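Below is one protein, fold included:
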Amino acid sequence: MRLSQRQQELLGEWLPTARVVTDHSWGLVGTLVLQFETDGERYIAKAGDDADRHIAREPEAHRQWLEPWTTRGRAPAFVRGDQEAKLLLTRFLPGELVEGTPYERTADTYRQAGELLGLFHRQLAVPDDSYEQRENERTLGNLRKPHRIVPELADRLRSEIEGWPTPAATLVPTHGDWQPRNWLVHDGIVGVIDFGRAALRSAYTDFARLAAQQFRTESALEDAFLEGYGADPRDPAAWHRAQLREAINTAVWAHQVGADDFEQQGHRMIADALGETPL
């Protein structure tokens, strides 16, 4: 992907003397993440393509919810944004990604991450009578898309979801992709990046990706995380629904973008949520 003409023009206005020093783009989706330097200052520009549906959320997340982190220097500070151009500019947050480093298996990382998430979740709570129904409909919609879930299992999943209760929920600001690939560590301090999935959801949804990955094999990391976070928000019935939705959505999304590893993880998550051994 390249910057669009409009994105280039805006960056030229915002940072007229800047130069690109690093491309941090992930590669699976059409989003560029570029590090710029100018006059001794460092910035991150995120630019979405026509298909991007997440960039617009980031300026809103910065304006509404990130203060508990930015005032502590634990998230990048917002500089400029243009939702129509799908362009966001923030200050550079120093650190290395936790994923793939020894910090990913260190309890203190998770204690800090739990504390940060607790701060984020506790700043706002909104009742919502239709949240569970919306989430069910979204997952059922994904099951209608192309995927490689075997037909008999897809029918079983569809039937289970259609039979679920839809109780009222309490929503809080959530990150939406809370896991080590979106945590940085600098001088032993954990910070947070990437707010393209930030939205009001049930608090326990921010536990789902950790539960499917790091917590699955290392209970000590989960214990440390909960120590930092506080009381565990996972009601068993609601947590089961969240895990199964996350599993289905992961398997379908990964198939759509051609991410075989994530697709396999999604199928394993389905089996785990159902209490079965994957084929």
User: Anything to note?
Assistant: The longest helix spans residues 236-257. The domain at 5-91 is CATH 3.30.200 (Phosphorylase Kinase; domain 1).
